[in-house]
Design a protein that fits this description.
Helices cover about 45% and strands about 10% of the residues. By secondary structure, it is of the alpha/beta class. Strands 4-3-5-6 form a 4-stranded parallel beta sheet, with helices on both faces. A two-stranded parallel ribbon has the order 1-2. Helix 1 crosses helix 2, helix 5 (about 75-80) crosses helix 6 and helix 6 crosses helix 10. It is elongated.
């Protein structure tokens, strides 16, 4: 259970500074937190008699917990630890559902309609949000959850929206920089070529991924062509 609490408080989740592995294990061992929702029941007085906590550190943790009450839907969905739902899947959900409540009792068939949402992930999400015990916990936490991902998709179509890219070969920028560029423009960078890949972004010495892309009929583009797609905001079919 401590792993789930640590995951919830992590930077990708609720980003609660001071609630790392050691402090979670301490609070868990003292019976102060048993589940992630118990974090929001903590008071400074609960911490002051514990090792590792003085007046300032106890107050800082309480402040960090209170700050985390203002979060985004994508971060919250990642934090609650739904099986198979990583940061990308959490953001994909946020792009397609305006609020947390819209996911309550969501059907697997609705989720599978979302591109890049496979059946295994869709089944896991549907099962989680169909469980009344889970819904009771979610309703009990007093949070202010915004969803800028949903609003940005609805306001303006991004140039790479819904497209999947695989990067191979030497590039003029680092792989991380290119992945961030793709993500910020609505696309998704995957590690392996498959039938769901839209483009292979190939640099020098592309290797076996290029051969597989050709075999599957996946279009190959250069880094400059990627930049041109973004610059000209080429229209693509809506995939969300």
């Amino acid at each position: 259970m401590t792993e789930k609490i640590i995951h919830f408080a992590s930077r990708g989740g609720m980003d609660i500074e001071g609630l790392g592995e050691k402090n979670v294990e301490l609070l868990y061992s003292k019976g102060l937190i048993k589940h992630f929702e118990d974090i929001y029941k903590l008071k400074k007085e609960d911490l002051l008699d514990l090792p590792r906590f003085a007046e300032k550190s106890a107050q800082n943790l309480i402040y960090a917990i209170e700050r985390s009450r203002h979060t985004t839907l994508a971060k919250f969905l990642f934090g609650i630890g739904i099986l198979h739902v990583g940061e990308y899947a959490a953001k994909l959900l946020a792009k397609n559902f305006k609020s947390l409540e819209e996911l309550f009792h969501v059907k697997k068939e609705r989720l599978i309609e979302i591109r890049q949402m496979g059946e295994k992930i869709a089944t896991s999400i549907s099962t989680f949000f169909d469980d009344e015990k889970n819904l009771k916990i979610l309703r009990s936490i007093d949070l202010e959850i915004s969803n800028p991902d949903f609003l940005s998709v609805k306001k303006e179509k991004l140039p790479l929206e819904g497209l999947t890219f695989v990067i191979t070969g030497s590039m003029p920028k680092s792989r991380k920089e290119i992945e961030d560029l793709i993500d910020s423009n609505g696309g998704h960078a995957s590690s392996a070529v498959s039938s769901s890949t839209d483009y292979l972004l190939a640099g020098e010495d592309p290797g076996s991924k290029l051969r597989k892309a050709k075999a599957l009929g996946v279009k190959t583009i250069s880094y400059d062509e990627l930049l041109n797609m973004i610059k000209t905001k080429t229209e693509h079919p809506r995939l969300f």
